[in-house]
Every structure is written in C-alpha cells, then in structure tokens.
C-alpha cells in the first residue's frame, strides 16, 4: 500500500511536469537542459519531464511603472523635481528574458535619465507649456533604446513638475509683478481713454460754440442788412413823397417854412446847451440864408417836374 501510494504520487508528479497550461495573459519561456528551447503561447502544452522547464514567465498585458521623483536642471538653470509614469508591454518573451536582466528596472532608470536629458533642453516655462512634446520625446528615446529588450514603450506621462521653494517664491513675486503691470496698463489705458473723451468733448464744445457764434454773426448781419434796407426804402419813400409834395401848389412855401422852423429849433438848442452865449456875427445874413434855401427848394422842385415830364 505504501509503495502504491509512492508510485501514484510519482505518476502525478510526472504528469505535472509533462503537462503545462499557459494562461491567456502570459507567455512562458522554456529551456531544455539549460538552453533556450521555445516561447509557449497561451494554451495547453506538453513538456519533457526533467528535461524541459519553465525558465521565465512574462505578463503580456500593458504594465504601468511608477518613475520616482528626481532632481532635474532646466536650460535656464532652474532646479526641478519631476516624476512620471511609463507604460510598456512585453512584445518578445525571449528578448525580455535574455536581452536584459530586469526590463522593468531598466525601463524606469532609462526613463529617468531620458527625462533629465530632455528637461535640460527646455526652459522652466517650456517644461509646463510643452508637456505633450516632452512626453513624446521621452517615449521616442526610451523606445529606441529598449527595442533589444523585447518590450514596447507605449507612452510616458509626467505627473508632477515641482520647482524648488526658492524658485516658487521667485515665481510668485514674478506673477505678482505681472499682475501689477497689467493693472497699471489697464489704469493707463483707462486714463488715456478718459483724456481722449474729454478732449473730444472739449473739441465738440468749441465747434458748437464757434458754430453758434458764426450763426449769431450771420443772423446779426442779416438783421442789419434788413434794417438798412428798410431804412433806405423808408427814406426813398419819404423823399418821393417830399418830391411829390413840392410839385403841388404851395409846396415850396411849406418846405421853406419847415426848414426855417428846423433851423430856428436847432439854433435854440445850441444856445440852450452851450455854456457861453453864441450869437451869429451877422444877424442880417439870416434873411439871405432863408432866401438861399428857398432858391434851393425851387431848383429841386423844377428838377422833379422835368424828370416827371421826361418819364411821361
């Protein structure tokens, strides 16, 4: 019974060594007597007991490896602390087993060195604004170097870019200065717009005042012209009426009487307003003056009659 049990266990052990089931997500590297034989894909396989053995097992799913934070120096000599994630996948089980000792550790270290190199080509502001291009450059460099390892680097993502405390303090001051600068520019633009509006208002006011003065002068000129025209028409009508009156019988006598009265009235006004007595030197000549005025009246009357006959 004991021997039967031993034989049964030995058969089970032989069957265990003889059969191999590879899961769907893995590939197995088989060695025969210490030498690479084949890479078994997912499924059921037979092995030669005590000759063939599974040397390596690799997960064919996409793996995510955490890249620890590391200190980097940018192009403008700014110290940064950068970490990230690298996504890779085993493409060739044989190369992943014999091409390198530990492809995961190698991929992480290569990602760190490549990241330091790429960040050294960029300034501090570019590291924040050009993350996508930085990720692509890191993936391209890592994938080129990891090709003999039988793995494929799918993508790389930078998680955090943390400047030093001194740099953060400097950046805060810079941002505060930029905010003050923008505020001063805004205030200056507002003052400029206000001054422009005020000058435009003053200009428009001056234009309106000048237009008003111009219109006032025009109106005054028109009024003066109309006044002169009315006075001239009135004088013309008065002269016409006087000339017509002179042609009537007794008109000359009336004109002489009117002139004499006006003269006497003016002389009396002069004598009343003057501080000294003003008496004509030759009072006898007054009669001659009135006679001369009478002759002028007759001459004017004769000229009006002649003109009227010529018009007829």
UniProtKB/TrEMBL annotation:
Q: Name one Pfam family in it.
A: Band_7
Location in or out of the cell:
Membrane
Domain Band as annotated: residue spans: 17-175
Matching Gene3D superfamilies, A to Z? Band 7 domain
**Membrane-related topology note:** Single-pass membrane protein
Cellular compartments per GO CC: plasma membrane; side of membrane
The record, for InterPro entries, names: Band7/mec-2_domain, Band_7, Band_7/SPFH_dom_sf, STML2-like_C, Stomatin_HflK_fam
- PANTHER family for this protein: STOMATIN-LIKE PROTEIN 2, MITOCHONDRIAL (PTHR43327:SF10)
Q: Which family does it belong to?
A: Belongs to the band 7/mec-2 family.
Provide the protein name: Paraslipin
